[in-house]
Amino acid sequence: MSTVLMAGTRKGVWVGTSDDARESWAWKGPFFDVDQVYSVMVDTRGGKPRLFAGAASMWLGPQVHRSDDLGETWEATPNGGPTFPDDVDASVERIWQLQPGPDETTVYAGTEPGAIFRSRDRGEHFELVRGLWDHPQRTEWGAGFGGQAFHTILPHPTDPDSVTAAISTGGVYQTRDGGESWSARNQGIRAEFLPEGQQYPEFGQCVHKVTRHPSRPERLYLQNHGGVYRSDDEGGSWDYIGDGLPSDFGFSVVVHPHEPDTLFVFPIGGGANRYPPEGKARVYRSRDAGATWEESGTGLPHHFFVGVMRDGMCTDTHDPAGVYVGARNGSVYASADAGETWREIVRDLPDVMVVRAAALA
Questions:
Q1: Domains (ranges, CATH) in the chain?
Q2: Per-residue CA distances from 338 to 75, 94, 296, 315, 318 (Å)
Q3: At 201, is the pLDDT very low, low, confident or very high (cuts 50, 70, 90)?
């Protein structure tokens, strides 16, 4: 079984493939090397894989590109990707998230400004999810240092009407009626940047990333601006699980593809430094849903003064699972044994903003 890995950067996207159990990698790229690529997606539904890249040109604006031959050739979506309808006074600046839906044709896109678009024809055309854009709280959402964007979209694996999403800085929202209505789901998440007594608002938290396992969709894991959390009721309430980490600040969180109690985070400093504690690259893994944590650093560098962004970590579905980390110094590290050991598989790319991997038949 082969593997494909996409790395989106501030100057294009690269595609890596491995046909020997992830021992060696062949890389193609850059594609769209004058564009910022904040979102990529490997769609393994249907007869053959389709690669997506959400690229933003400073001259032409954002565009979703797709490839049906693992990056050999690319074509743009017919209408240019997600665009606001004529009656909305806004324009899409970046595409921060591309996510497959639970069926074989749905694709979601999360954008800046904060909106979600949905395609029902596997990325050919996108329509604005009006129920979220028209939400009465939308005008009060803030913008983190990276901008205001829906960076997390988690369709329920069995209920096509249920989607959980997150935005910086607005928090977690959820729909159970196909996007017609949305409710804030932030109870227990601390907004540490607010004054004492106001740090647990209904919405407005700076959520960095949310993930879940398809076999246990009611359980969510969340990396906040400060704090790592778990919800066992699909976001109805959240419990802090950051004890035992060297820092509870970070951007990324991913769950093991076969073990819903196993998750990975990449802690970084919560101040202005934005690099790992002591300048050492370390992934931390929990095997008990966040009750305890263990350091996973064999093969990772000890001199590492760069960050890993919210979509800079991912897994594949092999057994043993692969885990991947892309960093802002242009390096990508891979573990073919679920985080036990690591090695660098490509270096000297531009800032890596997003990595996505998939096992191919």
A1: 2-360 (2.130.10.10)
A2: 34, 32, 10, 9, 10
A3: very high
